[in-house]
Amino acid sequence: MTTRGNGYTAPVPLTFTLDPAVTPALRAGVLDLWTDVSNARGAVGFVPPVTPEEIRPELVRHLVAMAEGRNRLLVGLDESGTVAATAFFSFNTHRLMKHWVWLYTVMVHPKHQGQGYGRDLLAAAAAEARGFDGITAIRLTCRGGHGLEDFYGSCGYREVGRVPGAIRVAPGDDRDDITMLLTLA
């Protein structure tokens, strides 16, 4: 935290890196983040309670896609160097859709939420995507019932599609699958 002249204590900004070296520490940090976000009821592909062992195969799929050049990782480190935020870019292979990218597994650690780090992560993702050759937009999906579409909307994304009840969190608890789009200027 940094203290401003008016006594307001602002969070120390995260340090964002695109395509960080995939070290054992990074893998463990992303796995810990994903587990903590999932267990805090974050909508990142799992329903609590979940263990790192349950998440690990999905992380490995992301890392393989990175090694194959299909995905790229944007990671945000806090002041101690701990993985605090992530977003994975996924590139389209269809020749008519190569002008936009998917953004997946957008996460901010629960202890950092409410401090503007989610906005910082999305701004960093947009800045990086603007540097990708031929990319003019970012698409992502989010699970209904969390208000995420409002958050993404406040960050410049607009809702472009919704499939009611497409995500079954539990028997009797179906959520909308919402598609959001950010057009890059």
Write down the secondary-structure element order.
EEEHHEEEHEHEE
Q: Name the average pLDDT.
A: 95
Tell me roughly what share of residues is in helical segments.
Answer: 25-40%
What Rg is obtained from the alpha carbons, in whole angstroms?
17 Å
- Count of DSSP H/I helices: 4
Find the structural class using helix and strand composition: alpha+beta
Q: Which strands sit side by side, in order, in the main sheet?
A: 3-4-5-6-7-9-8
Key features of this structure:
two-stranded antiparallel ribbon, alpha+beta, Aminopeptidase, 4 helices, 185 residues, single chain
Task: Detail the topology: elements first, then pairings.
Blueprint: E1 2-3, E2 9-10, E3 15-18, H1 24-39, H2 52-67, E4 71-77, E5 83-91, E6 100-108, H3 117-130, E7 137-143, H4 148-154, E8 158-170, E9 173-183
Parallel strand pairs: 6-7
Antiparallel strand pairs: 1-2, 3-4, 4-5, 5-6, 7-9, 8-9
Helix pairs in contact: 1-2
Give an overview of the whole structure.
- The protein is of the alpha+beta class and 185 residues long.
- It has one domain: 3-Layer(aba) Sandwich (Aminopeptidase).
- Helices cover 29% and strands 35% of the residues.
- It contains 4 helices and 9 strands.
- A 7-stranded mixed beta sheet has the order 3-4-5-6-7-9-8, with helices on both faces. A two-stranded antiparallel ribbon has the order 1-2.
- A hairpin with a 5-residue loop joins strand 1 and strand 2.
- Helix 1 (24-39) crosses helix 2 (52-67).
- It is globular.
- The two termini are 32 Å apart.
- The relative contact order is 0.13.
- The mean pLDDT is 95.
